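Weekly modeling sync, notes
Attendees: S.R. (lead), two postdocs, one rotation student

Agenda item 3: backlog of single-chain predictions. S.R. asked that every request posted to the team notebook include the full sequence so nobody has to chase files. The rotation student volunteered to paste the first one in as an example of the format we agreed on. Action items at the bottom.

Example entry:
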Amino acid sequence: MLSRDYILRILQTFFDLTARLFDGKRKTEEEFELELNQLYNAYFQKSRAFFMDTLPEEIPAVFEEDAFLLEKNSMLAEICYQEYHHASDEESKRNWGLKAKFLYDYLNNHSTDYSLVYIARSKELEAIN
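Predicted structure, as returned to the notebook:
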C-alpha cells in the first residue's frame, strides 16, 4: 500500500510539474528548454533528444526492465502530448503527436485501468499521419 501511495505521489508531482512547465508562464524559451530537459533526465534518466529520436514503437522497450513500466509510459505520453501542442514546426508536432498517440494506445491495451482521457487524446491524435 505504501509503495502505491508513493507512486501516486510521484505521478501527481510529475503531472503538476508538466502542467506548470507548459502553462506558458515561463520567462524565456531557453529557460523552458532547460527545465524540460531537466524533467526528462529526472524522471526518465534519458534526454529529451533521446526520446525525440526514438521511434514510437521502441519507447516501451526503454522501460521494460523498470518495475513501473506503465507509469513511466503514462508520464511520457503526457509530456509527448504537451510537446505536440507546444511544437512550433510541423515536423516536431507530427513527431511528438505520433509518440503520444502510440503511447496512449499502448496504455489502453496494456493497462488494467480504464482512462477516458487516454481514449479521448488518442482519438484527437488519430488524424496525424
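Discussion: group reviewed the output briefly. The first helix runs from residue 2 to 21.
Action items: rotation student to repeat for the remaining queue; S.R. to check formatting next week.
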